[in-house]
Specification:
By secondary structure, the protein is an all-alpha fold. The chain has a domain at 83-127. Helix content is 41%, strand content 0%. It is elongated and about 85 Å long.
């Protein structure tokens, strides 16, 4: 997408709408020592592929969660997720009737709790119904 800056006529129209006579008047509340009175020192523009490569290289300098311990997010850290979880989320029970493509948090959570409790009950009490009750 090309960058199309505002024309002088558009700038004057915007300034007139907010009641300012010039861009300098718009920013007059900013103290002079805090203003940058020179053009930004930016490198020349890049096309998409060199820009993506430059940003990828820049991102490699950042620390990420796999290198450092993170104590943020109450569980926001790498952990094992069984592949069955993705398959369970595809089941119709986890979807609402009005949005069949989008999981609904409350319904999905309740359904997951029900499924989990049912499986635990089946595993825990399997064969106990045939056992005599001990009092």
């Amino acid at each position: 997408m090309r960058y199309l800056p505002h024309t002088q006529a558009e700038i004057q129209e915007m300034l007139g709408t907010i009641g300012a006579r010039s861009v300098d008047e718009l920013f007059e509340t900013i103290p002079e020592p805090l203003r940058l009175n020179r053009p930004l020192n930016l490198p020349p523009a890049l096309t998409e592929i060199p820009l993506r490569n430059a940003l990828r290289e820049l991102s490699r300098r950042n620390a990420h969660g796999e290198e450092w311990a993170s104590f943020l997010g109450a569980g926001n850290y790498p952990h094992y997720l069984p592949s069955s979880v993705g398959q369970l989320l595809l089941r119709g029970e986890f979807l609402t009737a009005y949005t069949p493509y989008q999981p609904e948090v409350s319904q999905g959570t309740l359904q997951a709790i029900f499924e989990f409790q049912t499986m635990v009950a089946e595993i825990s009490f399997q064969g106990l119904t045939d056992s005599p009750v001990v009092e």
